[in-house]
Amino acid sequence: MSNDWYSDFVNSGFGKAIAGQVGLPPVPQLRRYEPGQPLLSGPALLGTATADGRVAKVVRSLLTDLGIEVHDDPNAAVGGGSSSSKVAAGIIDATGLSGPADLAEVQAFLTPVMRRIGPSGRILVIGDVPAEATSPAVRAARRALEGLVRSAGKEARYGATVNLVHVADDAVGADLESTLRFFLSSRSAFVHGQRLDVGTVPGFSGSSQGVDWDRPLAGRTAVVTGAARGIGATVASTLRRDGATVICVDVPSAGDALARTANDIGGSALQLDITADHAPATLLDHAQRHGGLDIVVHNAGITRDKLLANQDRDRWNSVIDVNLNAQLAINDALLGSEVFHRGGRIVTVSSMAGIAGNRGQTSYGASKAGVIGMVDATAPLLVEKDATINAVAPGFIETAMTKAMPVGTREAGRRLSSMTQGGLPVDVAETIAWFAQGASYAVNGQVLRVDGQNFLGA
Amino acid sequence: MPPTSSSAASSRPTLPRRAAIVGANRIPFARSNGAYARASNQDMLTSALDGLVARFGLAGERLGEVAAGAVLKHSRDFNLTRESVLGSRLSAATPTYDVQQACGTSLQTAVLVANKIALGQIESGIAAGVDTTSDAPIEVNDELRRVLLAANRAKSTAGVLKALAGLRPGQIVPEIPANREPRTGMAMGEHAAQTAAAWGISRTAQDEITVASHQNLAAAYERGFFDDLMTPYLGLTRDNNLRADSTLEGLAKLKPVFKPAGYPDTEATMTAANSTPLTDGAATVLLASDEWAAERNLPVLAHVVDAETAAVDYVHGDEGLLMAPAYAVPRMLERNGLTLQDFDFYEFHEAFASTILATFAAWEDPIFCKERLGLDEPLGSFDRAKLNVVGSSLATGHPFAATGARIVPTLAKLLHEKGSGRGLISICAAGGQGVVAILEA
Question: Fewer Cβ close by (within 10 Å): the C or N end of chain A?
Answer without folding.
Answer: N
